[in-house]
Design a protein that fits this description.
Layout (H helix, E strand, L loop, with lengths): L1 E4 L12 E5 L5 E5 L8 H15 L11 H13 L14
Antiparallel strand pairs: 1-2, 2-3
Length: about 90
């Protein structure tokens, strides 16, 4: 995943900056950065789907050094909507 700060290129995002996220699958999302804003369920599901898409490639690479960690992460992503943490706390790798 690559994040570009369109408001202040090359700088760390600050609240109110316009960002563009590009994922390995080529999918792009533009949004205004607000770390205090809670996610809607739809936004959380979209993020999760992009994460699953962008990590599909690792499953057949059984000798990847983080293969087991990615498998666990993907399981957490799939289970996340049914947990009490959804959509407030994203799973991490």
């Amino acid at each position: 995943m690559t994040i570009i700060n369109l408001t202040s290129p090359g700088k760390t995002p600050a609240k109110g900056d316009w960002l563009e996220e590009t994922y390995g699958s080529g999918r792009k999302f533009n949004y205004i950065y607000d770390p205090d804003m809670p996610w809607s369920e739809e936004e959380a599901r979209n993020w999760r789907d992009v994460e699953l898409d962008s990590t599909d490639w690792i499953l057949p690479v059984t000798d990847h050094p983080q293969h087991a960690a990615y498998k666990t992460y993907r399981t957490k992503l799939r289970d996340w909507p049914s947990t009490s943490d959804f959509p407030d706390t994203k799973p991490t790798l």
